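WARN retry 2 of 3 for item q-0093 after timeout on previous attempt; input resubmitted unchanged.
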Amino acid sequence: MSDVIISTRVRLARNLRDYPFPCKLSEQGREKVSEMVKAAITQSNSALQNDFEYIKLGELSPTQSVSLVEKRLVSPEFISDQSGRALLLSRDNSLSIMINEEDHIRLQVIKKGLALEEAYEIADRLDTLLDENLDFAFDEKLGYLTQCPTNLGTGMRASVMLHLPALEKSKAIGRIAGSLSKLGLTIRGAHGEGTEPKGALYQLSNQVTLGISEKAAIENLKNIALQLASQEEQARERICASIDVRDSIARSLGILKSALLISHDEALELLSNVRMGALSGQLKDIDTDVIDSLMTEIEPATLSAASGSNLSARDRDIERAKLIKSKI
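OK item q-0093 returned
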């Protein structure tokens, strides 16, 4: 399995037949939908029923809400309006169900590495469990009905998170992005649409949901992800032969080990360099799993949530430096 591919996500969008889309629902209507979805999980006979925590979005602090976005457990859109919205979250955070985002149900499965088939299988089982207890809006020609027409059909968005520092440094990303759109795929920043890539983290996902099966969409995404990973590995080998790049990697590790203050963007860039150095063989005894975890743990709201207080920007920079030093 390629070390370029950090994680896999499969998301399904579903709506209840007898209820307007969330944007047209009253707060009372949203609450009703939320209770129905909650009951479909927690009152089922499935082994999953005790694995989920039910969280009303309005009961979370702004810091806790933003931290959920940083961990990629919910979308930025989901926390923008808290009324009648809720989250079902598994204990290990690998399964989440956003209730009343753009659609009534946005369920997602996150797995480490390249695991598209496994993630889809879990998502499909969860979807079946919900379908047994809820009446989904479905059309024989259009498939699952969704608020946004781009999600019609399967309602599935699958994506992989890739670390592409060598392709980024060699300025190949722009050319690659143009080619991907012709294949029904898109590449964006780590947090999806409208986000800029930081730390050379990119999200590759399918764009087409109508007129194509889930299996075909996943196979297409998997093939292209593996091709991208191969291109990254080849580019890594080339650029890591440069003494300038090797020097940048060595300096990055030195700063991370000694800095007393470090900003979010600088930390991501340095961690990205160190990850590339570890994978190229330049840096020894660096655990890339630790680097991958740090890339989420150093996010501003996640740092504050972990500390239990609303840290100022300067205090976050101090805590971030301490956290990185303690783990590298």
